[in-house]
Structure formats: structure tokens, C-alpha cells
Specification:
With 555 residues, the chain is of the alpha/beta class. It has 19 helices and 26 strands. The strands form seven sheets. Strands 1, 2, 3, 4, 5, 6, 14, 15, 16, 17, 18 and 19 form a twelve-stranded mixed sheet that branches. The chain has a three-stranded antiparallel sheet with strand order 7-12-13, covered by helices on one side. Strand 5 (110-111) and strand 6 (114-117) form a beta hairpin. Helix 4 crosses helix 17 (417-427) and helix 14 packs parallel to helix 15 (386-398). The chain is globular and about 70 Å long. The chain starts with a helix and ends with a strand.
Length: 555
């Protein structure tokens, strides 16, 4: 079979203006970036705001494994399948980060014959959104150090500056640094560090903002550190929010691209799912719902992270309700959760698969707690046996979830017709979506519900520093925000080694931070990497380009 980039490069794309026209988008509402990608104007969402909402379908997955589960591929394939059936479907996805593209994880445009194109542009610089977020973030970082250097009128304590710098690349050497060395002209020396751009609070803000004005307001609320007296200092105290919004005036506009089968895809934003809320922008999802009868979107990592945050953070902020959930699983992932090493997951092993199926079962149970119908999509691999497929189907049906084998990687939309039919049937089932917890509960009560109901923990323990932060923030009036858990994606617990469906464990909250601009509290439950490193064999070392500009090695 051809590689992903070979498939993408051989595709015949439709001019993006034609894709937009077919969606009912007016010529003045699209800003082309070349022939096959475009920005959608701020006026478009206002014009279609009175349109009836299409059905919202969320794609999520079991806990991820090193083998990969194909969540984005399934999302794209489902959208293509619905269009093959004559349905008006629009896909909404996250943008990829250059760090994982050049590293190990890969891109975010799907795979095989269920891809979003132009794949190479999307996975590289796309329309510049990541660069704009990076620039806005680092502008604020520069303003902080400049303010301290120029007399420090705000009385900022350099030891308590919490706002790090960012770049959109994996570089472990920049995790912890010292800035301001070299004499008095270079500022005050202090400890600092870099995160990857998608870990920036500004990325989360972009994805939760309703428009440019809301983006500017939220940027002003970012807490950058504390004074010597212990008072919060915000970006608006530095008068930074206006210039930050200027740098993101185009980044706030969602991007329009297409799949290999010309299904429209609105791609916008991409916060990490294990430290932020892991969903594409509210603007993109709202547009997909207003322009399509069916909007197919995704949430990052497993359902314990991405789906929970989609439901409890994004849906609240956007005032939207999902109608059905697709839960992606693979036999390989379930065997891995059953204790099989990565290199052996392609070998038949029904015993290991049965040991891993409880992971799938827990995610089904969790989604049903939100009163939503579930369709299990088994992403098919050539090594899957009939016995293994039957076992996954039986487990799904036992919990009243629908089931379909998905072969969209190899067959595109055609391979997703069974899945699309099950999704359409699920959309006819009664649903009464509601978030998991009431925002008026205390943070201890909220997280107790998340830990016990979603992760399956026996209880929660807090470090003294975490308790102090929760109590201080509550006293300061930050008492009714949702919780964004920073947790390993590989386990339902906070221990990545506990696979399948662990029990008899507590969740430990080590630290709590306020993302005031994004509008949530982050509960850190483990060592979460905000600046990844490159692997021993980075993907970048296998990429090349010839004299005609043809790229090779990009997946």
C-alpha cells in the first residue's frame, strides 16, 4: 500500500473556493491561502448563526497505545461515509503541531484513504496559526521581563513568574533555562523555560473564545505571576492583550480544507489533551454545526481525558450538546491493555484481548453517564481475527453500545458505511446530555466525582501545596470554574503502567494552577511533559524534498 503522503500527493483536490461554494459560503466570506486551503471570515458565523444546528457527533477512543488507534482517521472516514450516503456532513478537526510531526507521534490529518488534504501543508506551516500563537505568547513573555528591567512598577517577583516561553518544536534542552545573563543591559537573571506551543494557555484560549473580542478579553486575564506581596499579576496589568490580539487577528479565523473525497473539513486550534482540553475551536465546531446537517468532530487521547473535557469544559463554554459518540478501539490496543508488548500486538491473542476489553467497557460506561448513545468503531487491521472481532462486538452489545467494523484507512468512505449506518441509527435514540458535575460544587467535590466516576479511583489525595492553591483561589472568587485534569493518557489512573481497567487506586493531585483566561483550573496528577523531546530516531531524519519540491518521508 502507498504511504500516507504518496496517497495525498496523488489526490485530485477540488479548488477550495468550490468546496466553500458547495457549502453555501459566500465569496466574501472566504480568504484563500493558495488554491486548496482558506480562512473563513468572522462575518460567516454571524450570518449563519440563526441556522438550525446539525447533529453533533463526537469521536473519541480507548486509552491510546504506542501502536496508535486511528481516531482522526475514523473521524475523517465517517465524514466521508456520511457524504457518500448523500448526507450533508462537515468535519471539524484540530491542527497538528510541528513538534510531534518532526518527532514520533505524527500529524493530525488522518491516514490512508481517510485523510485531510493538502496533507503536507496541514502538517507543516498550514496557514500560520501556530506561529501567530507562538508570537503572541512570546510577546507577553518579553513584556514581562522588559517590565522588570525597566523599573518593575508592578512589583513583580522574578522568582514567582509562572509564564514560560513557547516554541512549536520538541526541544528538551529548553525545558529549564536561565534568562537575563550577560550583565545589566540584558535584564534580571531568573529561572525560566520553554513549553511546546500547543501547551500554551493562549492555545486553549483561542479554542474557547467566541470571537476576536472574547479572545482579547481572555488574553488579558492570563495570570503571569505574583508580586512580592503575593498579589496576582495579569497580562492586562502589562497592557499586553491588545497587541496579543493583533498578532492573532487571522489565527482566530478557522481554516477550511477538504478530505480525499472532497468532504469539507474545518480545522482550527489544537491544545494538548493531557494538560488542556484537547479539542478544536468552539468557532470551528459551531460553524460545522451551522453549515452541515451532521458535524463530526473529535477529542484528544482517550475518552477519560478528551471526551470528559469536551463534555465538561467545551460544551459548557460553547452551549452545545452532542448527540452521539463514536468510541474508537482496535484489537491491537486492547491486546496491549491486556499485557502484550507493542511488538507483539499484531499476533492473534484472544486471551490478552479479553484481559484488555475492560478498558473499552469502562469508556462505554463513562460516556453513558452523560446520557449519550455510543457506537464502538473497531478500526480494522489485516491481522485481526474473526474471533477477536467477535469478542469486541459481544462486549459492546452487552453494554448496549452499537458496534461497527471500520475499514476507512484502506477503503476511505466506502469502508465506513457500516459505521455511518450505526451512527445514524444511534442519532435516532433518545439522548439527554448533561455535564458530569455542577459548577457550583467545591473543587474537592468536583474532582472527587471525576476521579471516581471517570477514572474509577477509590479516592483523591492532595499535596499541601495543591490544597493551599485550591483554597486560595476559592477565596479569591475563582470558585465556579470547570476542572481540567493533567493526567497520563495511557491509563485510566494517574500511573501509566496500570493498563486495562485498574482498581484499588487513589488519584494524587500534586499541583493546581489557574488558567484564568481559558476559564478552568488545571489539576496536575503526575509528571506531565509540556515540552516533549525528540526520540532516538526522529521522524525529521527520514524527511526529504527534491529539486521539484516533492516531499518524501512525511508519514
Amino acid at each position: 500500500m502507498l504511504t500516507d503522503i504518496e496517497i495525498a500527493q496523488s489526490a485530485e483536490m477540488t479548488p477550495i473556493c468550490d468546496i466553500a461554494e458547495n457549502m453555501g459560503i459566500l465569496p466574501d466570506e472566504i480568504e484563500p491561502y493558495g488554491k486548496y486551503k482558506a480562512k473563513l471570515s468572522n462575518s460567516l458565523l454571524k450570518r449563519v448563526s440563526s441556522n438550525k444546528n446539525g447533529k453533533l457527533i463526537l469521536t473519541t477512543a480507548v486509552n491510546p497505545t504506542p501502536a496508535g488507534e486511528g481516531k482522526t482517521t475514523t473521524t475523517v472516514g465517517l465524514g466521508q461515509a456520511l457524504c457518500r450516503m448523500g448526507k450533508n456532513a462537515v468535519i471539524a478537526l484540530r491542527e497538528p503541531s510541528l513538534g510531534p510531526v518532526m518527532g514520533l507521534k505524527g500529524g493530525a490529518a488522518g491516514g490512508g484513504y481517510s485523510q485531510v488534504v493538502p496533507m503536507d501543508d496541514i502538517n507543516l506551516h498550514f496557514t500560520g496559526d501556530m506561529h501567530a500563537i507562538t508570537a503572541a505568547h512570546n510577546l507577553l513573555a518579553a513584556l514581562i521581563d522588559n517590565h522588570i528591567h525597566q523599573g518593575n512598577e508592578l512589583n513583580i517577583d522574578p522568582r514567582r513568574v509562572t509564564f514560560k516561553r513557547v516554541m512549536d518544536m520538541n526541544d528538551r534542552a529548553l525545558r529549564n533555562i536561565i534568562v537575563g545573563l550577560g550583565g545589566t543591559n540584558n535584564g534580571f537573571p531568573r529561572e525560566d523555560g520553554f513549553m511546546i506551543t500547543v501547551a500554551s494557555e493562549i492555545m486553549a484560549i483561542l479554542c474557547l473564545a467566541s470571537d476576536l473580542s472574547d479572545l482579547k478579553r481572555r488574553c488579558g486575564e492570563i495570570v503571569i505571576g505574583y508580586t512580592y506581596d503575593g498579589e496576582m499579576v495579569k497580562a492586562k496589568d502589562l497592557k499586553a492583550e491588545g497587541a496579543m490580539a493583533v498578532l492573532m487577528k487571522d489565527a482566530i479565523k478557522p481554516n477550511l480544507v477538504q478530505t480525499l473525497e472532497h468532504t469539507p473539513c474545518i480545522m482550527h486550534g489544537g491544545p494538548f489533551a493531557n494538560i488542556a482540553h484537547g479539542c478544536n475551536s468552539i468557532i470551528a465546531t459551531r460553524l460545522a454545526m451551522k453549515l452541515g446537517d451532521y458535524a463530526v468532530t473529535e477529542a484528544g487521547f482517550g475518552a477519560d481525558l478528551g471526551a470528559e473535557k469536551f463534555f465538561d469544559i467545551k460544551c459548557r463554554a460553547a452551549s452545545i450538546k452532542p448527540d452521539a459518540v463514536v468510541l474508537v478501539a482496535t484489537c491491537r490496543a486492547l491486546k496491549y491493555n491486556g499485557g502484550v508488548p507493542k511488538e507483539n500486538v499484531s499476533k492473534p491473542n484472544i486471551e490478552a484481548l479479553l484481559r484488555g476489553i475492560p478498558n473499552l467497557e469502562k469508556h462505554i460506561e463513562n460516556i453513558k453517564k452523560y446520557n449519550l448513545p455510543v457506537v464502538v468503531a473497531l478500526n480494522l487491521f489485516p491481522t485481526d481475527t474473526n474471533e477477536e472481532i467477535a469478542a469486541v462486538k459481544a462486549a459492546s452489545l452487552k453494554l448496549n453500545a452499537r458496534f461497527a467494523v471500520s475499514d476507512v484507512f484502506a477503503k476511505g468512505g466506502e469502508g465506513g458505511l457500516d459505521l455511518a449506518n450505526e451512527v445514524l441509527a444511534a442519532l435516532e435514540e433518545p439522548s439527554d446530555f448533561k455535564p458530569l458535575y455542577d459548577l457550583n460544587l467545591s473543587y474537592y467535590e468536583k474532582f472527587d466525582i471525576i476521579a471516581k466516576e471517570i477514572y474509577g479511583a477509590d479516592g483523591v489525595s492532595y499535596s499541601p501545596a495543591a490544597r493551599k492553591m485550591i483554597d486560595n483561589l476559592t477565596a479569591l472568587g475563582y470558585n465556579n470554574l470547570p476542572i481540567c485534569t493533567a493526567k497520563t493518557q495511557y491509563s485510566l489512573s494517574d500511573n501509566p503502567a496500570l493498563l486495562s481497567r485498574p482498581s484499588g487506586f487513589d488519584i494524587t493531585v500534586k499541583e493546581v494552577t489557574l488558567s484564568a483566561g481559558a476559564g478552568f483550573l488545571v489539576f496536575l496528577t503526575g509528571s506531565i511533559m509540556t515540552m516533549p523531546g525528540l526520540s532516538k530516531s526522529p521522524a525529521a531524519t527520514r524527511m526529504d524534498i527534491d529539486e521539484n519540491g516533492v516531499i518524501t518521508g512525511l508519514f
